[in-house]
Amino acid sequence: MNKVVVGLSGGVDSSVAAAKLHHEGYDVVGLTLWLMKGKGQCCSEGMVDAAQICEQLGVPYHIVDSRDVFQAHIVDYLVGGYSSGVTPLPCSQCNKSVKFGPMLSYAKEKLGIDKIATGHYARIEYNPETGRYQLLRAVDKSKDQSYFLYDLSQDLLAGSLFPLGELLKTQTRQIAAEYGLKTAEKPESQDLCLVESNGSMRAFLDKYLEPKKGEIVNLEGKVLGYHDGIHHYTIGQRKGIGIAAAEPLYVVAIDNGRNQVIVGNRESVHQAECTVAGVNWVSMGLPVSPIRAQAQVRYRTQAMPASIIPLEDGRVRVVFDEPQFGITPGQAAVWYEGDVLLGGGVIENQR
């Protein structure tokens, strides 16, 4: 019998992933990574629901205390990024370093199982011509999470299953109801787990970073007002800047050295290119020359035509055909060919 360890958050998606595989004949073991204390699907509340799902399915359930790993790889990473004026993307970092890697290692070393599964909306296919596993968008494009999975290695893709990749979210809910899962009507988490447990990103950061007053200036350097910490701002932000103006103002840049937030009109937040570091070529090998693709610089934005230009140091330049809104250092730039995610990395700078 095929054995698989299913990562359970206590939400409907991971519950259906476990139930679906169980009904398909897999020998399922449930596993929750205890990431932090408090409310939220990844915390104590989620563990109770996950344990009840496993009891309902009649499968074993394990909890691994991953709080120290989460603190080092996510909390410290976020705090360090925001304090230096960038806006980190914790989910892709968490997927590789906190979830998939440790989960697969635990499954193999502790349980003798070489496959893990999660409730992510994405697909994995093996391409025999290239000998590589490819990461694809989910069938349900409105729920697709491939953007957050760009950093998974070939070994992690080879050892992972995404049972929901071919489903629409409405179908997931229907399956949960058909199986009578207690999470069938559970509301969907709308925020990052840290936001969910702290109330807001601002509240989370304020626990770690002291207020540091600085100037809010326009593109000409004129002081328009003051802020109490650059960590409260991100490029493209419009609400909560704290300045009254005749036209809407957006955060254009954050100058860590001067402790300044630079603002301007919407047009000034558009940039044509960015440099991307920490690149992972997922579904193809490192190209020797520029390629054409559709690049995406935010989770909820559309992938747009661009040239991906490899640099000698392993980084890439992403040059868009048309300037894009809010290209933000610290976020991910990910490029696709159709549904196939070719590669991605962390935005280092834009211009």
Describe the protein:
This protein has 8 helices and 17 strands. The chain is an alpha/beta fold and 351 residues long. The strands form 3 sheets. Strands 12-15-14-13-16-17 form a 6-stranded antiparallel barrel. A 5-stranded parallel beta sheet has the order 3-2-1-4-7, sandwiched between helices. Strand 14 and strand 15 form a beta hairpin. Helix 3 (67-83) runs antiparallel to helix 4. The N and C termini lie far apart (54 Å).
Task: Kindly list the characteristics that best describe this protein.
Elongation Factor Tu (Ef-tu), domain 3; 30% strand; 351 residues; alpha/beta; Rossmann fold; SH3 type barrels; 3 domains
* SSE string, helices as H and strands as E: EHEHEHHEEEHEHHHEEEEEEEEEE
Separation of termini?
A: 54 Å
Instruction: Supply the CATH superfamily name of the largest domain.
Output: HUPs
CATH architecture of the largest domain: 3-Layer(aba) Sandwich
What's the pLDDT, averaged over the residues?
A: 92
Major sheet strand order: 12-15-14-13-16-17
Tertiary shape: globular
Whole-number tally of structural domains:
3
CATH class group of the largest domain: Alpha Beta
Number of continuous helical runs: 8
Structural class: alpha/beta
Q: Using only CA atoms, what is the Rg? A: 21 Å
Low-confidence stretches: none
The amount of helix comes to 25-40%
Instruction: Tell me about the largest β-sheet.
Output: 6 strands, antiparallel, barrel
CATH topology of the largest domain: Rossmann fold
Beta-strand percentage? 25-35%
Instruction: Count the E strands.
Output: 17
